[in-house]
Amino acid sequence: MANPKAFMEVKRREVEYRPVEERVKDFNEVENFLFHSPGAVEEQAERCMDCGIPFCHGAGCPLSNVIPEFNELVSRKHYEEALRLLLSTNEFPEFTGRVCPAPCEAACTAGLNDDPVTIREIELAVAEEAFKRGWMSLGVPVERTGRKVAVVGAGPAGLALTAKLNRLGHSVTVFERSNAPGGLLRYGIPDFKLDKGIVRRRVALMRDEGVVFETGVAIGEDMSLNLLRRKFDAVCLCGGSSTPRDLPIPGRDLRGIHFAMDFLSQQNKRVSGEPFDGDEISARGKRVVVIGGGDTGSDCVGTSIRQGAVSVTQIEIMPKPPEGRSEATPWPEWPYQLRTSSSHKEGCERLWNIASKSFVGKNGEVAGIEAVKVEWSYNAKGLPGKFVELPDSGFKLEADLVLLAMGFVGPADKDAYAVAGLEFSERGNIAADCAGRTNLDNVFAAGDIVTGPSLVVRAMANAAQLAATVDGFLKELA
Ligand SMILES: Cc1cc2nc3c(=O)[nH]c(=O)nc-3n(C[C@H](O)[C@H](O)[C@H](O)COP(=O)(O)OP(=O)(O)OC[C@H]3O[C@@H](n4cnc5c(N)ncnc54)[C@H](O)[C@@H]3O)c2cc1C
Ligand code: SF4
């Protein structure tokens, strides 16, 4: 490192956000990124101790980004070399640099008795410097192999797989049901976390690299999986996990109860000026209750606040996690601990240990939720195990809009895929081995469609593995 004592002398610069009163008035990105402050990125990169056994790279980052080495290069301002190193493992550092929860930082050795290195923001700085200077060059292959691959789904898994296979010389056509590529990067994650111009910029680059995008085409509806198998040498299913978990309690059919993704995708389309089907869902002037305490729920909170909700309450059946790392998840594991997002800080009440029992309504519209409190017992590891409902703990939460953000239970196109003979796992995802092979000869799968709902970085890591499998398969074809 340029200054080997920096980890003792320089403090971690925490993530900075635009002031709440300013940011809730728009859908622009909330983070004041480190790369906007001259010298800050290099100074933070110097904090990396190059500690010898890089847990950040091994136990932390699912992509195995070569973190101490790119920190070293950044600390010496060698951005172009840092970019090359970063791109050797990570196709889209401009996405992970914005939305990754950074398990690498949870595994950083400096975090054992001090604050971890700001790895995610350093990664983003390298990516943005590269776009600014025109280094994010085209991965156009020198020679085409003549092999044709169909990728179904243009989320982070499909895009990362496509980028790799295209660079290896295979001709890739991406089929995407939506009007534009990006998957949840485009239609799920709100603009205030990831500006859609960033997604469009990457897709434009991939088009220039020779990738063909067929948008507005749903495989299983507009074209069968078996037809695709005949037309292409390999078919890769990267359609994500988009069937929302429902809450089938009394009153579920009242108006004003919606799945989180219906609400979030409408807002993303509104920001991009895209039309959307169905009735408008708006939080303006409403008391909003979000059921589900995870990231999707948090995105509903931030979106509701920006739309002008009167109040926002997020309820969760799980207990409140500890403020700091739980002993159940020691370093370098991903910590079980309370996570407070930028949206939560914008004005939201959070309640834990709550089980919804029924929706109550007036004139067919939802007016509230009847709920009870629950108590959890903990397993031997110290993590929540089972719960019981507390007697006489019933209460009512008033609500004019209820958003269901309780996760996803598998791909939307199960029936169409089952007709083609594709097998599914017990959890309802596509059954694939660790190399991404399904039970059908030239059909492969990666991302949330195999793992269930996960993270952008994990979907990309899964796709990177599949790229090697598919490349090997294509090379062996006569
Ligand atoms: C609201 C929300 C916020 C999130 N926030 C974060 C975050 O901040 N950080 C993070 O790391 N992760 C986040 N996640 C999780 C992350 O977005 C997913 O894990 C990731 O996008 C999965 O990538 P994927 O490519 O497997 O699937 P997806 O992103 O779901 O993409 C699948 C694509 O396939 C298309 N498709 C499906 N079936 C077909 C078909 N039959 N024919 C044609 N096209 C098809 C879909 O239209 C979609 O575009 C969030 C998830 C949600 C829902
Ligand atoms: S992709 Fe995520 S886990 Fe990997 S280095 Fe970047 S921020 Fe860390």
Overall average pLDDT: 96
Oligomer kind: single chain
CATH topology of the largest domain: FAD/NAD(P)-binding domain
> Can you identify the CATH superfamily of the largest domain?
FAD/NAD(P)-binding domain
Tell me about this structure.
With 478 residues, the chain is of the alpha/beta class. It folds into three domains: 6-133, Alpha-helical ferredoxin (Fumarate Reductase Iron-sulfur Protein, Chain B, domain 2, Orthogonal Bundle); 148-242 and 409-476, FAD/NAD(P)-binding domain; 257-404, 3-Layer(bba) Sandwich (FAD/NAD(P)-binding domain). Helices cover 33% and strands 16% of the residues. The chain contains 18 helices and 14 strands. The chain has helices at residues 6-9, 20-23, 40-46, 55-60, 67-75, 79-87, 93-99, 103-106, 119-133, 156-167, 184-187, 196-208, 225-231, 260-272, 295-307, 414-419, 448-451, 456-476; strands spanning 148-152, 171-176, 212-215, 234-237, 257-259, 287-291, 311-315, 349-351, 354-362, 365-378, 384-389, 395-398, 401-404, 443-445. A hairpin with a 5-residue loop joins strand 10 and strand 11. The longest helix has 21 residues, at 456-476. The protein starts with 5 loop residues before the first helix and ends with a helix. The mean pLDDT is 96. It binds flavin-adenine dinucleotide and iron/sulfur cluster (SF4).
List keywords for this structure.
5-stranded parallel sheet; Fumarate Reductase Iron-sulfur Protein, Chain B, domain 2; 16% strand; binds iron/sulfur cluster; FAD/NAD(P)-binding domain; 33% helix; binds flavin-adenine dinucleotide; single chain; 478 residues; alpha/beta; 3 domains
